[in-house]
Design brief:
It contains twelve helices and no strands. It is mainly α and about 280 residues long.
Length: about 280
């Protein structure tokens, strides 16, 4: 998906370096596992232990405690197994990250037939990616180490490229557009997650946090208004002290900031599409 540029889950060792190289394929062990090219153990030392259960346990830990809490030992404890027993199924934590990422990303939902035209389809694609990230905020905490290469990542990439079929753009430009839109989605989700985490840590809600921030900026700039004229004008409108643009501007869409940003990104793409059609 979008993330690192092209697909919602691209990152965590999807490229080379996630585990050792598989025998004869040139793919990392994690990719061989994700694509079903590695033979899975038929029976482990603990009854009921399986790769799917290990991945599910990792996702559950990441959702409740954050991706940093996902270790082979912690997953083994959650499953009531020994850490060594997990290595029959997963060669390393980085490989587990790849498998967790692909499972959480999932297959992209089918695009409705009524969504037509490159812009509408790309908007739909971006929103769908965002929903995945918002359901699994830990995904944006996994470092990006390579381009998308797992099954679900490439399915998202395929859908994004197909959305641009009628754009008239060259294939290379299409890829650049996906990187631009996917990067915007990932950055917006990461920013919102960071702000939310900070407010929660301080025990404040969005409204209180923004009012406090406005008071702070007002105090810091009031003694030197000539140094911060633009900030002083902004403070005078009251916009800085509200939690979202809906409160300040009367916008109907509660997702105003995301939609505003996505719209401006696509406005730029529209210029590129227009130039390609000349």
């Amino acid at each position: 998906m979008a993330a690192d540029g092209v697909s919602a889950g691209a990152g965590a060792g999807a490229g080379a370096g996630a585990g050792e190289e598989g025998a004869g394929t040139g793919l990392s062990v994690s990719l061989e596992t994700a694509w079903g090219l590695r033979e899975r153990p038929s029976k482990g030392p603990k009854p009921g232990l399986s790769l799917d259960r290990i991945v599910d346990a990792g996702i559950a830990i990441a959702a409740s405690e954050g991706i940093g809490a996902v270790t082979m030992g912690r997953v083994a404890k959650a499953l009531g197994a020994s850490p060594m027993s997990l290595y029959r199924y997963v060669s390393a934590r980085d490989e587990l990250y790849v498998l967790m990422q692909d499972a959480a990303t999932g297959t992209p939902p089918g695009m409705p037939a009524e969504v037509t035209g490159w812009r509408a389809r790309l908007e739909w694609w971006a929103r769908a990616q965002r929903e995945v990230f918002r359901r699994h905020l830990w995904l944006v905490r996994i470092p990006i180490t390579g381009p998308p290469a797992t099954p679900h990542q490439l399915e998202w990439m395929e859908q994004g490229l197909a959305a641009l079929d009628d754009s008239g753009l060259e294939e290379g430009w299409k890829l650049s557009v996906l990187m631009l839109v996917g990067g915007f989605v990932r950055n917006e989700v990461t920013l919102m997650a960071d702000l939310d985490a900070g407010m929660r840590a301080e025990g404040r809600g969005p409204d209180e946090a923004m009012r406090q921030y406005a008071r702070k900026v007002d105090a810091l700039t009031s003694t030197a208004p000539g140094r911060f004229p633009s900030l002083r004008r902004l403070l005078a409108t009251g916009v800085l002290g509200v939690a979202d643009a809906e409160d300040a501007e009367g916008a109907e869409d509660a997702e105003f900031e995301f939609e505003f940003g996505l719209g401006r990104v696509l406005d730029g793409v529209a210029v590129l599409v227009g130039e390609a059609g000349r």
